[in-house]
C-alpha cells in the first residue's frame, strides 16, 4: 500500500531578483525614505509605512467622485507592494502609473516583473496542473478547536540549538499561531487555540546520518525512519503514539508534529492524504532568522497548513494570478501581509464552500 501520495516540498524563496531590479529605478516612496539621512528605518518599519500607504491609497480608490490616483501615487503604491513582495499587485500599480506617464525605465521595470512572475511558476521543479484537497485527514484534521503541537528541536552534526535559538523559534511559532487566529476571524469559525509541547532531541551519529539524507528531492522512506528514530528517543514506537498521548493529555481536537533542524534547506510536509492515515508531520529546515524577510514565520505557518489539508498554490500553472497573497502561494516578506484565501480556508475546514478556481481540484 502506498502510504502517502502527496509530499509537499517547499522552497521558501527570497525574491531578491526583483528588489535588485527595482532599486536602480526607485522612483517612489522607498527611495525617498532611503535618501533621507535622518531616517534609519528597519525593513519592518518600512513594512509598516507601506501598509499604511497601501491602506490610504486603496481607501482613496474606493471613494466615488474622487480623482483617480495620480502617477506618483501609483508608483509609490507599486514600490510598496514590491517591498512587501506582493508582486502581482505591484505590477498592476506600475501599469496604472505607465498609462498616466510612460517612460523607458518604467516599461523595463514592468517587463522584468512580468518575466519574473512567469518564470516563477514555469521554473518550478514540479509544476502541477491541479490542486489536491486533503480535508479532515490525519491527526491535524481541521484548524478549529484545540490543537496540541509537538515541537521537536533536532540536534545533529549540522543542526545545533542554543536555548536562545529555541526561545526564538517558539516565539515565531506563537506568532504564526496568532496569525491563524487573526485569519480565522474572517471565516466566523470558533477561535482556534494551541498548546505547544516542546522537546529537545539530543544528537547522535545516527541522527546526523539521517539528517544528511533529508535533502533528497523525492519522497523518501528515510524521512519516516528518521521521524520514528527521533520519537523513539522520547520513548514512543511511532509518531502517532506520541501525538495520541499528547492529544489525550491536553484533551485536544488536533495534533501536529514539527521537527525543526537549524539548517537552511528545503522544508517539507508529509500530510495525510486518506482517511485512515495516522501519521503526518513536517520537517522545518530553516534557521531562526533571515535579516531580509520573515522566512521562519512563513515556513511554520505554511507547512502547518499542509498538515491541516491545504495544498500548494505556487507551483500550479493556472494559479499564477489566483489568490496571490494566500499563504500557500509564494511568500510575502512579512507573514502579516499573507492571507488565508477561500480555497485554503475550505481545505483546512474553515468553510464548506468550495470556490470556483481556474484549475481543477481533486
Ligand atoms: Zn508547501
Write the layout of secondary structure elements.
Layout: E1 8-10, H1 16-25, H2 29-35, H3 43-62, H4 71-83, H5 87-100, H6 104-122, E2 146-154, H7 163-184, E3 193-201, H8 205-213, H9 221-232, H10 239-250, E4 254-261, E5 267-270, E6 281-285, H11 295-307, H12 342-347
Parallel strand pairs: 2-3, 2-4, 4-6
Antiparallel strand pairs: 1-5, 5-6
Helix pairs in contact: 1-6, 3-4, 4-5, 5-6, 7-11, 8-9
Residues 8, 10, 302, 306, 312 line the site of zinc ion.
Characteristics:
binds zinc ion, Collagenase (Catalytic Domain), alpha/beta, disordered N terminus, Serine Threonine Protein Phosphatase 5, Tetratricopeptide repeat, 2 domains
TL;DR of this structure?
The chain is built from 12 helices and 6 strands.
- Write down the CATH class of the largest domain: Alpha Beta
Distance between the termini: 20 Å
Share in β-strands:
5-15%
Name the average pLDDT. 86
Relative helix content: 40-55%
Which spans have pLDDT < 50 for at least 5 consecutive residues?
A: 1-5, 13-21, 23-41
Total helical segments: 12
Class by helix and strand content?
A: alpha/beta
Radius of gyration, CA atoms, in whole angstroms: 22 Å
- What's the architecture of the largest domain in CATH terms? 3-Layer(aba) Sandwich
Which topology of the largest domain does CATH recognise? Collagenase (Catalytic Domain)
Describe what this molecule looks like in 3D:
The chain is an alpha/beta fold and 362 residues long. The protein has two domains: 6-118, Serine Threonine Protein Phosphatase 5, Tetratricopeptide repeat; 146-347, 3-Layer(aba) Sandwich (Collagenase (Catalytic Domain)), CATH 3.40.390. It contains twelve helices and six strands. Strands 1-5-6-4-2-3 form a six-stranded mixed sheet, with helices on both faces. Helix 3 crosses helix 4 (71-83), helix 4 runs antiparallel to helix 5 and helix 7 packs across helix 11. The chain is globular. The model is unreliable at 1-5, 13-21 and 23-41 (pLDDT under 50).
Amino acid at each position: 500500500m502506498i502510504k502517502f501520495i502527496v509530499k509537499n516540498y517547499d522552497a521558501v524563496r527570497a525574491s531578491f531578483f526583483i528588489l535588485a531590479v527595482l532599486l536602480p529605478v526607485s522612483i517612489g516612496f522607498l527611495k525617498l525614505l532611503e535618501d533621507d539621512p535622518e531616517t534609519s528605518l528597519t525593513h519592518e518599519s518600512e513594512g509598516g509605512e507601506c501598509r499604511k500607504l497601501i491602506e490610504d491609497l486603496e481607501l482613496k480608490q474606493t471613494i466615488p467622485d474622487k480623482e483617480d490616483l495620480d502617477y506618483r501615487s501609483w508608483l509609490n503604491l507599486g514600490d510598496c507592494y514590491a517591498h512587501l513582495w506582493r508582486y502581482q499587485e505591484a505590477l498592476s500599480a506600475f501599469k496604472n502609473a505607465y498609462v498616466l506617464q510612460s517612460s523607458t525605465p518604467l516599461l523595463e521595470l514592468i517587463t522584468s516583473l512580468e518575466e519574473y512572475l512567469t518564470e516563477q511558476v514555469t521554473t518550478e521543479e514540479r509544476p502541477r496542473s491541479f490542486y489536491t484537497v486533503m480535508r479532515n485527514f490525519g491527526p491535524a484534521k481541521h484548524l478549529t478547536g484545540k490543537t496540541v503541537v509537538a515541537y521537536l528541536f533536532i540536534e545533529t552534526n549540522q543542526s545545533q540549538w542554543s536555548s536562545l535559538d529555541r526561545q526564538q523559534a517558539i516565539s515565531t511559532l506563537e506568532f504564526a499561531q496568532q496569525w491563524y487566529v487573526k485569519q480565522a476571524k474572517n471565516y466566523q469559525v470558533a477561535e482556534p487555540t494551541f498548546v505547544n509541547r516542546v522537546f529537545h532531541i539530543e544528537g547522535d551519529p545516527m541522527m546526523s546520518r539521517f539528517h544528511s539524507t533529508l535533502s533528497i528531492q523525492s519522497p523518501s522512506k528515510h524521512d519516516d525512519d528518521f521521524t520514528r528514530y527521533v520519537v523513539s528517543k522520547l520513548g514512543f514506537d511511532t509518531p502517532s503514539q506520541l501525538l495520541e498521548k499528547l492529544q489525550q493529555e491536553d484533551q485536544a481536537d488536533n495534533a501536529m508534529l514539527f521537527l525543526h533542524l537549524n539548517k537552511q534547506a528545503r522544508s517539507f510536509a508529509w500530510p495525510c492524504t486518506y482517511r485512515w492515515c495516522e501519521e503526518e508531520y513536517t520537517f522545518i529546515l530553516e534557521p531562526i532568522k533571515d535579516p531580509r524577510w520573515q522566512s521562519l514565520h512563513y515556513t511554520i505557518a505554511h507547512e502547518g497548513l499542509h498538515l491541516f489539508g491545504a495544498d500548494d498554490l505556487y507551483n500550479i500553472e493556472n494559479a499564477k494570478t489566483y489568490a496571490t497573497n494566500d499563504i500557500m502561494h509564494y511568500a510575502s516578506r512579512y507573514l502579516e501581509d499573507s492571507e488565508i484565501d477561500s480555497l485554503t480556508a475550505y481545505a483546512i475546514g474553515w468553510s464548506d464552500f468550495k470556490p470556483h478556481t481556474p484549475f481543477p481540484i481533486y
